[in-house]
């Protein structure tokens, strides 16, 4: 079986994890700080690690103070966590439609959706191509809102010469095994705003304050710590941070290989009938997480099932978020974002990962060509 995504683990990764297992620190130790520093070099901003991409989003929304009565404007073309992290804090999620070609959130739709209650505008870098952050920044600043970038797909990418961690007030990452690099399970939040970094660190550590200058009762013993605001235990352990640091040292090679594979798909599939290839974005140097094609003429399900029957585990990314029953039960209805729904009806993710061989990619292309020409 050929998956649509898969981790790349080598001997250096294994050695890093084994070394961490033999150390005095399995969690809350020096490898956390080391990984966060390496990650900041890639993201372009200070980073706070957490347990996964979903908790990264929850922590980011919490750091902005999202609560009941607030609104969060976001895209429906994403994994549900982009929206559910805000909804769980009591916010009303407002879905803005996507651009027809990129499937990234449409700034014009965002501008139309913003109100005086908009606390956060949350973009998603679909498939690894950064959203139009310059236009989104202007909208967010005009509205007095925070700008959040869900970069679960795009670490290693840049937008107009700037790394993705510098484009929004908060940028979240996922290090799930299918992503651009992995910590097995893991995530992080980058921020260019020091006060948000502080809030993030406290939130992911159960809200604990250890800085005596900030304590309400600083004259207690050296053991003393305080909780001023509720937080959760979202700490990423040293063992997984060791894997992450090792993986980050290979990120350049991962990016180069993914870009080679994308270029090969572009060339090999260019003349296939009934198929639309992804756009790559102006001013973008993308490290693609997905290679999302569009299957035309109502044949997406047929192609999905036939490819899987051939042992090629293509995927669909994503069901529009408000189609999920949990949002349907809140009153959201189909038809809300026509571009997103049209994209979903045709979208198919082909296998893309650093260890994908040319011969395996050729197999994918041959199978897809054969189906679409039959």
TrEMBL record:
Source taxon at top rank: Bacteria
Q: Does the keyword Cytoplasm apply?
A: no
* Record carries keyword Zinc: no
Offer one Pfam family short name for this entry: DegT_DnrJ_EryC1
GO molecular function list? pyridoxal phosphate binding; transaminase activity
Question: Biological process GO terms, please?
Answer: polysaccharide biosynthetic process
Q: Which UniProt keywords apply?
A: Pyridoxal phosphate
Gene3D superfamilies to which the protein is assigned, alphabetical: Aspartate Aminotransferase, domain 1, Type I PLP-dependent aspartate aminotransferase-like (Major domain)
Q: Which residues form the active site?
A: 179
**Cofactor dependency:** pyridoxal 5'-phosphate
The modified positions for N6-(pyridoxal phosphate)lysine read: 179
Q: Which family does it belong to?
A: Belongs to the DegT/DnrJ/EryC1 family.
Name of the molecule in the record:
dTDP-4-amino-4,6-dideoxygalactose transaminase
Q: Which organism is it from?
A: Actinoplanes derwentensis
């Amino acid at each position: 079986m050929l998956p649509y995504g898969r981790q790349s683990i080598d001997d250096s990764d294994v050695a890093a994890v084994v070394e961490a297992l033999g150390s005095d620190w399995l969690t809350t130790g020096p490898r956390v700080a080391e990984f966060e520093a390496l990650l900041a070099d890639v993201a372009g901003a200070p980073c706070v690690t957490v347990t996964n991409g979903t908790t990264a989003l929850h922590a980011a929304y919490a750091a902005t103070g999202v609560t009941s009565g607030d609104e969060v404007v976001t895209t429906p073309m994403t994994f549900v966590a982009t929206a559910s992290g805000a909804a769980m804090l009591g916010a009303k999620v407002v879905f803005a439609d996507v651009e027809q070609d990129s499937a990234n959130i449409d700034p014009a739709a965002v501008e139309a959706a913003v109100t005086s209650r908009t606390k956060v505008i949350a973009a998603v870098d679909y498939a690894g191509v950064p959203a139009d952050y310059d236009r989104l920044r202007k909208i967010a600043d005009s509205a007095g809102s925070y700008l959040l970038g869900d970069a679960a797909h795009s670490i290693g990418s840049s937008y107009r010469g700037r790394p993705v961690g510098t484009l929004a007030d908060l940028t979240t990452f996922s290090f799930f095994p299918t992503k651009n690099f992995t910590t097995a399970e893991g995530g992080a939040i980058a921020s260019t705003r020091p006060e948000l970094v502080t809030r993030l660190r406290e939130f992911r550590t159960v809200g604990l304050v250890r800085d005596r200058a900030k304590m309400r009762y600083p004259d207690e013993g050296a053991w003393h710590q305080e909780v001023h605001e509720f937080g959760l235990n979202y700490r990423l352990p040293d063992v997984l941070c060791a894997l992450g640091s090792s993986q980050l040292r290979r990120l350049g090679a991962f990016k180069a290989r993914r870009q080679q594979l994308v270029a090969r798909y572009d060339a090999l599939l260019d003349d296939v009938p009934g198929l639309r290839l992804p756009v790559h974005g102006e001013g973008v140097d993308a490290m693609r997480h997905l290679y999302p094609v569009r299957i035309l003429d109502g044949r997406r399900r047929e192609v999905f099932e036939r490819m899987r029957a051939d042992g090629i585990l293509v995927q669909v990314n994503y069901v529009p978020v408000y189609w999920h029953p949990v949002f349907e039960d809140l009153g959201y209805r189909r038809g809300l974002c026509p571009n997103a729904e049209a994209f979903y009806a045709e979208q198919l993710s082909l296998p893309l990962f650093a260890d994908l061989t040319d011969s395996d990619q050729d197999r994918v292309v041959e199978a897809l060509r054969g189906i679409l020409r039959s």
